[in-house]
Amino acid sequence: MEKSPLASVEHFKHYFGPQYLFDDFSLETFKSFFPKALRDSPSILELHKLFQLHRKKIRKKLQENIETEFQSYEEKVLETLALVENLDDLKEKEKLCKREEKKLKKECQELNEELEAFCEQLDEVLSQTKRKKVALEEAPTLERLTEEIIDLLEKENTSDQGE
């Protein structure tokens, strides 16, 4: 696991560990807490040993608690830093997506304009095709022309014969 840039176990020990727990009382200092008549008693020596063992256990437990809390703190700091980094990455990706969206919208607009121009050309071609179709429908067919010529020739023959 990476070291947290914010703190160290020693900082936690310094700030959260009561300093008096790390002081050792000499036997003489310990005896000074008792009345003079009891200071030379063998029970005081035994009591001093028990007191030192008890303090050692307390210091050990405090040390373990500080290390556990620090580890938890460090993990949370690293998780937070990772989240911040991920958030920065997501913001950068969002910017890229917005640029891409803008580019795609521009392309769509250009394609739409091209499509509209194509549709206008197609309408013009269809309109011309309709006019040609109507003209073709109105144009005389070979059969009709032949009939008209025959009619004209017959009229000429009848008019020539009548004269």
Your description of this structure?
- By secondary structure, the protein is an all-alpha fold.
- It is built from 4 helices and no strands.
- The chain has helices spanning 9-16, 27-31, 42-138, 142-162.
- The model has no long low-confidence stretch (mean pLDDT 84).
Shape: rod-shaped
Sheet having the most strands: none
Q: C-alpha Rg, in Å?
A: 54 Å
Percent strand: under 5%
Structural class, by secondary structure, is mainly alpha
Share of residues in helices: over 70%
Mean pLDDT: 84
> From N to C, what is the helix and strand string?
HHHH
First-residue to last-residue Cα separation: 128 Å
> So what's the oligomer here?
single chain
DSSP helical segment count? 4
Question: What's the total number of strands?
Answer: 0
**Low-pLDDT ranges:** none
Task: Give a summary of the structure in a few sentences.
The chain is mainly α and 163 residues long. The chain has helices at residues 9-16, 27-31, 42-138, 142-162.
Secondary-structure topology with pairs:
Blueprint: H1 9-16, H2 27-31, H3 42-138, H4 142-162
Can you give keywords for this protein?
163 residues, mainly alpha, 4 helices, rod-shaped
